[in-house]
Write a structure and sequence with these properties.
about 25% helix, Immunoglobulin-like, 23 strands
Length: about 425
Amino acid sequence: MKNKLFSSQSSYIVAWPIVVALFVLGILAAVKGWFLPASILLICAFVGLTARLWAIFSCKNLIISIKNDKCGLFPGGKLKTIIKMENGKFLPVMWLELNMRLDENPVLMPREAAVQDIEEAGAERDGKTIRYKSACAKLPSLIWYEKAEKTIEWDALRRGVYDCSDWSVISGDGLGLCQLKTGGAAAQGESIAVYPKLQEVSLGGFLGNIQNGRYGSKGLFEDVTVIRSSREYMPYDNSRSINWRLAARNMPLQVNLYERILPGNIHFIIDGESFQSPETYPEKLEDMLSIVASIAVKLADMGVDAGVTICSGKTSGPVHVFSMEHGLDEVLYGLSAYDPYEVDYQDDNKSVVLKTPDFGTERIQEMLPFIGRVYFVTKNGQSAASREEVMKIAPSKMSIITYEEAEIIGDYETLCLKAMKGGTSDDL
């Protein structure tokens, strides 16, 4: 029995055909009177059989639960995996290890775990050899009816979603000849999302028209506060809050109380594929997703709900996260999971074969009555013009956000995404 993970390979001597063959050859050698070869063959058969049975019974009544302390975090964050083990039998468990498959460019990296590069010889997927990393963490041994716990810490390296379903807990005999995957190991929350990196953003230009999210009009709303009421002036009040109109009428000093007025919700449409043509822009793609995530988080702190539609990619079709159905975590997860199409080249190996992504515009049209304002995020004006099906969704309530600079695109209101970088908490 062979396991593909580097630290969990059983010896051929424990395979049933080898054990049976050694036993039969030993008996035949004994019948022929070749006692030394017979003894060696029978001893090898006995060792193989013992090791296999030892491994099988060692994994019996072994209860293992795996739980991650969170299902989403930002790059640079820390994650803990808590592994609880219980040996429910008299036979001790001599060793345990947790094998974790990692991507070639890992999203998360475990601490205190041996990591090895793996290349499956002869394995092909889309014409390419499968390459990945495998991490092995040693777990404590268990004597009879013992319980133990171990915590593995992880570092979040980059945006993406890490799948825990390929984890396996390995145990076996004390000689190390036979390794078996134990039953009952389950990671609660089979995927961990590393969200796009947050950065400081300025919503000054963004909030200049965000009030349109409630009404869908075109004009600018320069002040996002209104006077709610007033009260008597107190010595500690700021003089700028005094209602001087009332004071001019010889009335007692009054202080204005303000209330911020913001729209109910907005919706982003992300054109990630525009960053794949005519050249690839992985850094710009990551920066775009980072800025959008930062805006969504900042708007959520202000009480503005944001949803997102992400175009189809290599691993999934269009993803819709509407604010009236889901929360901020789902928006961040959708941005984390986006994986653009792989770049294909023409015969000259220089020209990129452009792909037309699917945005699922029918679903957006269904939810449009419940959306305040739509923001179409794309690389530039040229890429926006090539997405006619998106541009026709809601011209009256759509703004276009281009990455490089705000361009004139028909009658649409346009914003520059990069210009929103570098804000502070006091930029409103």
